[in-house]
Amino acid sequence: xxxxxxxxxxxxxxxxxxxxxxxxxxxxxxxxxxxxxxxxxxxxxxxxxxxxxxxxxxxxxxxxxxxxxxxxxxxxxxxxxxxxxxxxxxxxxxxxxxxxxxxxxxxxxxxxxxxxxxxxxxxxxxxxxxxxxxxxxxxxxxxxxxxxxxxxxxxxxxxxxxxxxxxxxxxxxxxxxxxxxxxxxxxxxxxxxxxxxxxxxxxxxxxxxxxxxxxxxxxxxxxxxxx
Length: 227
Fold this sequence. Notes:
The chain is of the alpha+beta class. It has one domain (about 1-220). About 25% of the residues lie in helices and about 25% in strands. The chain has a ten-stranded antiparallel β-sheet with strand order 2-3-4-5-6-11-10-9-8-7. Strands 1-12 form a two-stranded antiparallel ribbon. A hairpin with an 8-residue loop joins strand 10 and strand 11 (about 160). The longest helix has 12 residues, at about 165-175. The radius of gyration is 17 Å and the shape is globular. The protein starts with a strand and ends in a 7-residue tail after the last helix.
């Protein structure tokens, strides 16, 4: 179990990112088995999800919309739980409300989400309690929202261009900033998480209680970090 989520790496929940679009909403898809590349098109062809495990620039998943044009890009270090919150919201964005009761989309403003999760807000920048992660809003730039991590400065966790519906940004941020831990294989953790002490990593096996409870209780004993 790992928290905060922005220190956990992507993980292996690929099925949560692309599975619902294919299995629940019957979006068209193509899969190249040797590379793992998957492209998924909405029924009206206005949206495409491109999943590229071997992208040369480290882009794991891109969501692109045509007319109006906007794009959301997620890196290989972006937690797939947060990426899935975006892709699973896409059918509702296009008016398909099937399964909406099982795919909740937050309508809480970003600043309230930040306060709920103890992130600080200053101007257009939201900063995590440990100062390692931030979401920056620059409405006058082509990339209107950018999520950065101290250890991956050259590869933002996520970018959202001007015109991206803010609901998708909220969905991503809500699942990134929550203190609820995610499960990872230790070998899949980023090196910075394994060797730094800023993340909380607790074992799933070998504990006398539920690992989620064990992790949550351990969180209570950790001091909040602010500079």
